[in-house]
Write a structure and sequence with these properties.
By secondary structure, this protein is mainly beta. Helix content is 13%, strand content 37%. The protein contains 2 helices and 9 strands, in the order E-E-H-E-E-E-E-H-E-E-E. Strands 1, 2, 3, 4, 5, 6, 7, 8 and 9 form a 9-stranded antiparallel sheet that branches.
C-alpha cells in the first residue's frame, strides 16, 4: 500500500546541512536500523548546537546501487540531528555533511515497517515517468514531531536526491 499524502513530490533546492550522529554499515537483507537508533537515542541530548528537534535517518549508497539491485549490497546508514556547527562532537559520534542540491520530497504517513511499497512506487513508478534521474548523493528521511515509528498515523518526509534528465 502506497502511503503518500501526495504522489507528486515538492522539489526544493537546499543548502548543505551539517549533521552529528552515529553510523553503521548494513544491507537491506541485514537491516541494522533498530540497532543504530538504539545506540544513538540515549546520547542525543549530548549534541549541542542543534538547529531543530528533528532527527535525520540518512542512507549513503555506493554508485550504481539501484541499477543492479541486490538486497545484500552494503550501504551506510546514519542516525543524526542537524547542527549549526561542529564545535562540540560527543564521544562515539561523527560529523556528516549532507550535500545541498535538488531533492524530491515525499510525505509518508504510516508505519515505518510498511514503507517498502512506497519506496517501490518512488523508484519504479514515479522516477520513470518524471523529468528527473536519481542523483548520487545521500538519501534521507526527516523524522519530525509527527513521527511515531510503528503508529499508522506516523508521518515523515522522504528526501530523494535528483537531477534533471
Amino acid at each position: 500500500m502506497i502511503n503518500l499524502k501526495n504522489k507528486k513530490p515538492r522539489t526544493p533546492i537546499v543548502a548543505a546541512r551539517k549533521l552529528i550522529g552515529k553510523n553503521i554499515i548494513m544491507s537491506f537483507s541485514e537491516n541494522k536500523t533498530a540497532n543504530l537508533w538504539k545506540s544513538f537515542m540515549p546520547h542525543r541530548d549530548e549534541i549541542k548546537d542543534k538547529i531543530s528537534p528533528d532527527f535525520y535517518s540518512a542512507q549513503v549508497y555506493p554508485p550504481g546501487f539501484f541499477e543492479d539491485f541486490n538486497p545484500k549490497k552494503e550501504f551506510g546508514k546514519i542516525a543524526a540531528v542537524a547542527v549549526s556547527e561542529y564545535k562540540s562532537v560527543p564521544e562515539g559520534m561523527k560529523t556528516f555533511e549532507l550535500p545541498g542540491g535538488l531533492y524530491a520530497v515525499f510525505e509518508y504517513k504510516g508505519k515505518a515497517s510498511e514503507a517498502s511499497d512506497t519506496f517501490e512506487y518512488i523508484y519504479y513508478e514515479w522516477f520513470p515517468k518524471s523529468k528527473y534521474d536519481l542523483d548520487n548523493r545521500p538519501h534521507f528521511e526527516i523524522l519530525g514531531n509527527k513521527y511515531k515509528n510503528e503508529d499508522p498515523e506516523s508521518e515523515e518526509e522522504i528526501w530523494i536526491p535528483i537531477r534533471r534528465k
